[in-house]
Design brief:
Layout (H helix, E strand, L loop, with lengths): L1 E5 L31 E8 L2 E6 L9 E5 L4 E7 L2 E6 L8 E9 L5 E9 L8 E7 L9 E6 L3 E2 L4 E6 L2 E7 L4 E2 L4 E5 L28 E4 L10 E7 L6 E8 L15 H12 L27 E3 L12 E3 L19
Parallel strand pairs: 15-16
Antiparallel strand pairs: 1-8, 2-3, 3-6, 4-7, 5-6, 7-8, 9-10, 9-19, 10-15, 11-14, 12-13, 12-17, 17-18, 19-20
Length: 340
């Protein structure tokens, strides 16, 4: 997303003749010359888009265009919020682009060019159910989703990271799923032609570790997950709300002095965002590496997973590491626990 801010600037040129007094131009700089700031955007129902800005706006935009082109039936401004209604429903999970120039009450303008996604009113209930981050050449990294209710997955987004800061992601295609289905998101594909996203049949994809009774999906260009220190999250769409998340780390608060032990600003920010979004619990006021699931004993075949009768209290207590060769992607999880 690119945001271009256009600020009207007054250029003052003063020519001084002889000893004439200098005119006071401060009156011209007392007014507001700051443009409005973009806050958020999202589809609120199948045919409506809402945009939120930082201050009151004029009733009409200077410029507005959509790609693909769409017929607008209503455009309204309520203080800092714009609501746009369309003649036809947006495709659930479909990708759209808006370019709009808005003005505040002082005439300062901002041009926004951004993507948004069609509203999906039939989302299933899902959880992140199993994953490996210590993949091998024969068992690459992957994340399993468990379907808890019937629905359609169009637009759901899986991040390595968080919605505001991520390394790679998979926007799920439209799949009609049913309770107790499994979705396997392969985070390190080989890039072969047989690695196909399965959307209508569960047995069409080839590639490593596919399951004939699960929906296999592939992260294009995926490089695998962070081995020992990372965040995996799932959102209703790339501009949507958090569905589920997992924080894993083999570090401690004493691992470094600058990032509360997380090793980098980026990793710390992702952990903070997950915590602040209600997706993970912390014992203290700030989330710490000790709050995370420790992946130290996991391998390519010793996956990290929930129990078969799962709990979801958003903490490491929901998870365990299974014994060697007991990973169960595409099937009910093993309740066996690896003992070093």
């Amino acid at each position: 997303m690119k945001i271009f801010q256009k600020i009207s600037v007054i250029t003052l040129l003063t020519v001084i003749n002889s000893c004439a007094p200098l005119e006071d131009y401060r009156q011209f700089t007392d007014r507001d010359i700051r443009p409005p700031m973009f806050i958020s955007m999202g589809s609120t129902n199948p045919n409506t888009l809402e945009l939120q800005f930082s201050e009151k706006l004029l009733d009409k935009p200077e410029y507005l265009v959509f790609d693909p082109a769409m017929e607008i039936t209503d455009f309204s401004v309520d203080m800092e919020k714009i609501q746009i209604s369309f003649a036809e429903d947006l495709e659930p999970g479909g990708l759209y682009k808006i370019e709009i120039t808005v003005c505040d009450l002082s005439g300062n303008s901002l041009t926004l060019i951004a993507d948004f996604y069609g509203y999906n009113s039939n989302l299933p209930d899902l959880i992140i159910n199993e994953f490996t981050s210590q993949g091998s050449s024969t068992n690459p990294d992957k994340v399993e989703l468990r379907v808890l209710s019937d629905g359609n997955t169009a637009g759901i987004c899986i991040y390595e990271g968080i919605d505001t800061e991520w390394k790679q992601r998979k926007i799920l295609p439209s799949i009609d799923v049913h309770e107790d289905d499994y979705i396997i998101v392969h985070f390190k594909p080989a890039g072969t032609a047989e690695e196909i996203d399965e959307t209508t049949s569960k047995d069409t994809s080839g590639g490593l570790n596919v399951h004939p009774e699960a929906w296999d999906l592939w992260v294009e260009g995926g490089s695998g997950l962070s081995g020992n220190n990372g965040t995996i999250t799932m959102f209703t769409n790339p501009r949507g709300s958090l569905i589920d998340g997992i924080l894993y780390s083999n570090r401690t608060s004493g691992s470094d002095e600058n990032y509360r032990g997380f090793g980098s600003t980026a990793t710390m920010n992702k952990a903070d965002r997950l915590f602040e979004s209600g997706g993970w619990l912390a014992e203290g006021d700030l989330i710490a590496p000790e709050d995370a699931l420790d992946p130290e004993d996991s391998t390519a075949t010793r996956s990290m997973c929930r129990e078969s009768v799962y709990t979801d209290i958003n903490s490491s207590m929901d998870w365990h590491i299974v014994p060697t060769s007991t990973a169960s992607f595409g099937e009910i999880n093993s309740d066996l626990i690896y003992i070093p």
